Amino acid sequence: MLTFPNCKINIGLRITEKRSDGFHNLQSCFYPIGWSDVLELIPASEFSFVSSGLDIPGDPARNLCVRAYEFLRADFDLPPVHMHLHKIVPIGAGLGGGSSDAAFALKLLNERFSLGLTVGQLQDYARRLGSDCAFFVENKPAYCIEKGDVFREISLDLSGYFILLIYPNLAISTAEAYAGVRPRHPEVSLLEQLQTPIETWRDWIHNDFEDSLFPVYPVLGEIKQKLYELGALYASMSGSGSTVYGIFQAPVTVSNHLGRYNVWQGKL
Ligand SMILES: C[C@@](CO)(OP(=O)(O)O)[C@H](O)COP(=O)(O)OP(=O)(O)OC[C@H]1O[C@@H](n2ccc(N)nc2=O)[C@H](O)[C@@H]1O
Ligand SMILES: Nc1ncnc2c1ncn2[C@@H]1O[C@H](COP(=O)(O)OP(=O)(O)O)[C@@H](O)[C@H]1O
Asked: How confident is the model at residue 257, as a pLDDT?
């Protein structure tokens, strides 16, 4: 069985407070994007995992796909499988690529072996694998609060727009990025701001990680500026970086300046 774990962008990201468990509460809109990895699952005589494509730092035995399998095996009589992950979505990119792989592995195992897990149960397993992970179970636009793993309905339909993602070959650790932010409660809720026309988002929809990361990595602000020069209606860094995206009315021709980075363009 084959599946295509896609990534997400954050539209607005407010870090509102540090929690007693060391994590942070946030407000953000998570929006699924078509840039995807490929995950294959084949029943086998013993468990194995291989990856191809982009190098994934760390021990393959700790890969989030392997951990997803192990979490389910602890509770179900799961047969051994061979898992092959072809990694395309950049890592340390603020796109939740690893979290998506994990959520899709849970969904694939649930389906292949008829485990009968509900969406809520899959989300509970996913929450244990990463704060971003539960979002990818339903994988639809959501307003996320708390650790980013509690969801509120949002009526936000960007279909018809185009998105350009620029990953400047710079891996930023999520934990490090959180360590640099100063949490604060916003006066106006992001949920309200997201109901305004996209043309006005530039004036108030903000990713709080930009404040601490743009001074350290000036290339991020330069890319955002370039995206506006190219005609973006809205541009922002995604998550804890380093991907910067622009939302456009029509497809864009990517200049040499941006073309040297890892670039993906598609429809929203
Ligand atoms: C910043 C966000 C925004 O969407 O996305 P990415 O940039 O990773 O895509 C997420 O909050 C990232 O979620 P995720 O990548 O799953 O993080 P986790 O593995 O759960 O946690 C990694 C580390 O980030 C910090 N962390 C994460 C989430 C959170 N709400 N508060 C935190 O303080 C903690 O230090 C934690 O040890
Ligand atoms: N399948 C996977 N894909 C990407 N990263 C993974 C995977 N499994 C474990 N990791 C680890 O997760 C971290 C990056 O996670 P990722 O979700 O890609 O980051 P970000 O959300 O910042 O883009 C890396 O430290 C990497 O070693």
From this structure: 81
Contact between 219 and 153 (Cβ < 8 Å): no
Q: Check: CB of residue 261 under 8 Å from CB of residue 168.
A: yes
75 contacts: CB under 8 Å, gap ≥ 6: none
142 forms bridges with which residues in the sheet?
30
Q: What is the pLDDT of residues 32-47, one digit of tens each?
A: 999 999 999 999 999 9
Instruction: Give the 3-state secondary structure of 125-175.
Output: HHHHHCCCCCHHHHCCCEEEECCCCEEECCCCCCECEEEEEEECCCCCCHH
Cβ–ligand 2 contact at 60 (below 6 Å)? no
Which of 8, 21, 100, 132 best tests ligand 1's pocket when mutated (most atoms within 8 Å of CB)? Answer: 132
CA separation for the pair 194, 46 (Å, rounded): 48
Domains of the chain plus CATH, in order, are: 2-152 (3.30.230.10), 162-267 (3.30.70.890)
